[in-house]
Amino acid sequence: MYARTFIILALVVVASEVQAAADLHGVVLANELGDPPMGNRPEEARKGFEEALKIRRELAQKNPDTYLPDVATTLNNLANLDRAQNQMEAARKGFEEALNIYERFAERNPERFQSDVARVKRQLQTLSK
Hints:
With 129 residues, this protein is mostly helical. The chain has five helices and no strands. Helix content is 88%, strand content 0%.
């Protein structure tokens, strides 16, 4: 029963994250082209990321070594959406939480997580400009 529930939760997370990433891509592309994000579904992207984050946090409580990096990825995606919508304080908070997780994991496995640490640090620097 647990395994089946886990598989269903994993599929929901993946589906939510994929749709949210597609929606975020539309928002970012529209911003880069100077178009308003109307019609690019930023709120649907937010909803997908928030649902994925909720599920991933629940999974991370039971198995943090496996799921905390996924929490960091979703936090990073949500922070990118916040930045695209000019919500800089929310973006900073998301990037900082993601960075904290990635740095903890980079201490144990630098080859796997150092690039994530560097990427999120660059994203934080762009908020200061």
